[in-house]
Write a structure and sequence with these properties.
The structure is a single chain. The chain is flat, with a radius of gyration of 23 Å. By secondary structure, the protein is an alpha+beta fold. The strands form three sheets. Strands 2-1-3-4-5 form a five-stranded mixed sheet, sandwiched between helices. The protein has five helices and twelve strands. β4 and β5 form a beta hairpin. α1 runs parallel beside α5. The chain folds into three domains: 132 residues, Maf protein, CATH 3.90.950.10; 65 residues; 50 residues, no CATH class.
Length: 278
Amino acid sequence: MFSGRTLLIVTKHAKEKVIAPILEEELGVKCMVTSDFDTDLLGTFTGEIDRKEDPITTLRKKCLLAMQLANCDLAVASEGSFGPHPSLYFTHADDEFLILIDQKNDLEIIGRELTTETNFNGAQIRSEKELKDFADQSQFPSHGLILRKNKEDFSSIKKENSDWETLVRNFTELSSTDGKAYVETDMRAMKNPTRMKIIEKVTVNLVAKLHSLCPNCNTPGFDIFEVKKGLPCELCSFPTRSTLSYVYACKKCNFTQIDDNPHGKLTESPEFCDICNP
């Protein structure tokens, strides 16, 4: 389905460095990057342009607009969201998505990687010492930092801080009027090796889905559609919140298949039962 075709990687932040080698080896495609489409038009991490829609909708737009400009029918694009982890509320998380759209075969496959492996952070600082502490914590200079006058001010952003001298000079300039500035981690992929590793992981995740074929029509992307809870407690047999089965579904022909006891357990320990351990 993919071998020998040209695949467009929609990025302006060098994501092709980790995406292209995996997809070329696993799918047999020839990857290309276009400079005709500015992905920042759909939102920037630093707030100059707000992302108006959810990550998946934004990804689709990225792909479809870039494919039209490049006259290509196969493309991938990634989008990351940074903030509190959905269940570990006091921990920062990177929620990374990668979409593949194949217009020739009317196919859309999405990979996702949710992780706490991120240096995402920001702080108001008033001294070089505070700047140094933040920089050390953020793995600068291997990971980029961005400065502006304050968190809500997008008029004077300093993005290119590649060394300590430049960082201090920009901080001094921005803090000259009131003695403070706002510093944040640069989450653009080419300035953030930690994020680049997550993009590599989500690419592997996407490939696994592409290699998962529907038993009915052989279409790639046969994936978990629903997770059913209710694994019985081994003591009282009451349904627990643990996984009882996965329901796999094909987006093409709607064929479904149930995988019972996917974790190899027929019962759950009483410590996870709301009756035995309320």
